[in-house]
Prior knowledge:
By secondary structure, this protein is α+β, with helices and mostly antiparallel strands. The chain folds into 3 domains: 17-76 and 377-471 and 500-513, no CATH class; 86-294, no CATH class; 304-369. It has helices at 66-72, 86-90, 100-108, 115-152, 163-193, 201-230, 241-263, 277-291, 304-327, 337-369, 407-414, 463-466, and strands spanning 17-22, 27-33, 43-53, 73-80, 297-300, 374-379, 393-402, 428-438, 453-461, 473-480, 485-492, 495-504, 511-520, 523-528. The strands form 3 sheets. Strands 5-6-7-8-3-12-13-14 form an 8-stranded antiparallel β-sheet, with helices on one face. It has a 4-stranded antiparallel β-sheet with strand order 1-2-9-4. Helix 4 (115-152) runs parallel beside helix 6 (201-230), helix 5 (163-193) runs antiparallel to helix 6 and helix 5 (163-193) runs parallel beside helix 7 (241-263). The longest helix is centred in the first third of the chain and has 38 residues, at 115-152.
Amino acid sequence: MADPAPRxxxxxxxxxxxxxxAHDHEQLALEIRHAPGSATAGGTHDVELFLFxxxxxxxxxxxxxxxxxxxDLTTYLRLDLPELGLEDLRANTRSPLRMLEVHLAELAQGQxxxxxxxxxxxxxxxxxxxxxxxxxxRLWSLIRAGTCHxxxxxxxxxxxxxxxxxxxxxxxHELATTSRSALKRLxxxxxxxxxxxxxxxxxxxxxxxxxxxxxxxxxxxFATLAHELCAxxxxxxxxxxxxxxxxxxxxxxxxxxxxxxxxxxxxxxxxSATNREYFLYRRSLLKKAVQEALWVxxxxxxxxxYLRNAAGMVAAGMAATWALIAQLPARFxxxxxxxxxxxxxxxxxxxxxxxRIKEVTKEWLIRRMRSYDQETELVGLQLAKSGxxxxxxxxxxxxxxxxxxxxxxxxxxxxxxxxAGARIGGESVLVYRRKLEILASPEExxxxxxxxxxxxxxxxxxRHFMTRLDERDQFVRHYEPSVGGFATHEIAKVYHLNVxxxxxxxxxxxxxxxxxxxxxxxxxxxxxxxx
Length: 531
């Protein structure tokens, strides 16, 4: 008898990557990156965001209704493709432009449309910026870590011999070479498409926008790295190493500036001082145009009207019943004058109560019948045009204040407390719940969709929080024994907003993460991640 085949345990889904940062001085940005395949595998992704609001902020259900919260909330849903490096983009094996020759031939024979080409160009631009951003982050971390190492151990080998400096110089040179090679691949594709610009002017515009945006993005990355180096005077130690790194960055950036000038693209240097706002506006438009291929469009479902009409019908019936009962005693005119006076006033009071009964009953029924505030349908994904399938699903949202936070959330909130005397019991707990249900893709979907991942971006404006805070700068006067006299210090008064995210997914345990947002009257000071 043959041995039974070994049982294969399916791999456990990866936990989502959750990150919270300050989008600007007023907005928090929560980013949730789900595992590859989450866009098409089907299942429900739950997000619960708990805000523990200090008592002295004074924000509660009575003065912060759900309508104000949703006005402060901005959410996005997008797809993530498998990571491609700059080497992949300049080669012809995995690049989104690898099928350009085939589609151009079909377009010339009238056998295809140009839709696929436009989407592929946008995907190329997106993957290029993502690859350059990852490399910038790596080099940026290398500069910071290496500088700290040099400062902590200055007695080691001479500066040019330190490994991190050699690695940084090689990394910058590699970034400059491979990024411009990838852009050359894009520009060669644009040149091949140029004979079709009159046939498909929209696609030609996509080529132009992607070319301009990727060049501007690369210029910004080089300038950021140069600024990070120049901000550390200790690196200019006479070895000439920093100068060589800056020279590589400057040479590549200057080449891109000349190219944009020849193409008639925007350049900050050639923009007049009175019209520099146009530069930021133009760059923002280019970014949206390039990345729109990966954003998931939504459409609000009109389910609220049905609930309101049904609740209104029930409430009207109850109010009419009350009015009928209240009017019956008015027929009895044989009562005493006092009783008749009361019976005259009673219909008026009954009418007033009828109106209130109707409204109160309607609102009570709506709260019970509607488990979510908003329901949104995912529609019309442009990636389907490029053969990457489609996305279907529903997004539901709800916000409310809680009397008590769940035990697991409260446990992680209390972990790592370090302020003596602080009482958690005085905090208001605001919870925002978000349920994203993805319908499994049909079997005829291409296999490339197996690697598509979901990314949820949630931004919350804290303007209603900060308007209630005291002035940031507080003056403290006291006696200092070290100087033998009195002193005055200016100290920033801050407030701590604790944020806990609970993320759940198909076949996954709930994943919790906590942050401490340090606020002042002027905005978000910093975000800490307590242990």
